[in-house]
What we know:
By secondary structure, this protein is α/β, with parallel strands linked by helices.
Amino acid sequence: MSGLLTERVALVTGGGSGIGRATARAFAAEGATVAVADVDPEGGHQTVELIESDGGRASFIRADTSIAGEVENMVAEAVRTHGRLDCACNNAGIEGRVGTTTIDYDEGDWEHVINVNLKGVWLCMKYEITEMVEQGAGAIVNIASIAGLVGLSGSSPYAASKHGVVGITKTAALEFAKQGVRVNAVCPGVIDTPLLDRIVTRLPGRKQFYLDAQPIGRLGAPEEVAAAVVWLCTDQASFVTGHAFPVDGGFVAG
Length: 254
């Protein structure tokens, strides 16, 4: 533990698995106290237990980030429990139906993806930034995707939501830079997570397709994304705001 975030408090949404879990553990490894939020209590509590077994400090908050009241309570509970909020990683998201063309997507399914992936990030920032402005400082990292930088055939609402995350990240960064709040996005490529497992289970052969498309020759690990998130929240990134940072093995460079 190098202690780059000692005495700071971090909030991670979707912290019960995948990138969220890796990020929560990475925050704790740098000395932060972590509020782990998720709709899944089992996964969230498991993340807390992993952090505590490593000697860190963490708590769990159940929250559906697509619901304003639950997000407001999530941020308030994190502050009540730990005294402040210095860092936030807005990671909670879903893939939606994969392999469905834009014109064939069901309206209800479209709205569900947008509500979780885009509205949810906006709601989180709404309450996180309010707290951070009152404190005079803070750092937020939103998890977008390479699908926020390029198109993604068969996943129109996912691509739309992640492009939206990049847009609101840049906008909020401009709005609150002079108030001490930095806002960035990390855009993961194809990462070996439960979300990817769900996709390849539904679409046999897709995993090999993803592997073949990686310039680096392999899938990414959640810990590699987490490292970028945590760095963006440290003082080492004090002059970095408003960026969409790919962690993708070179995917969007092609």
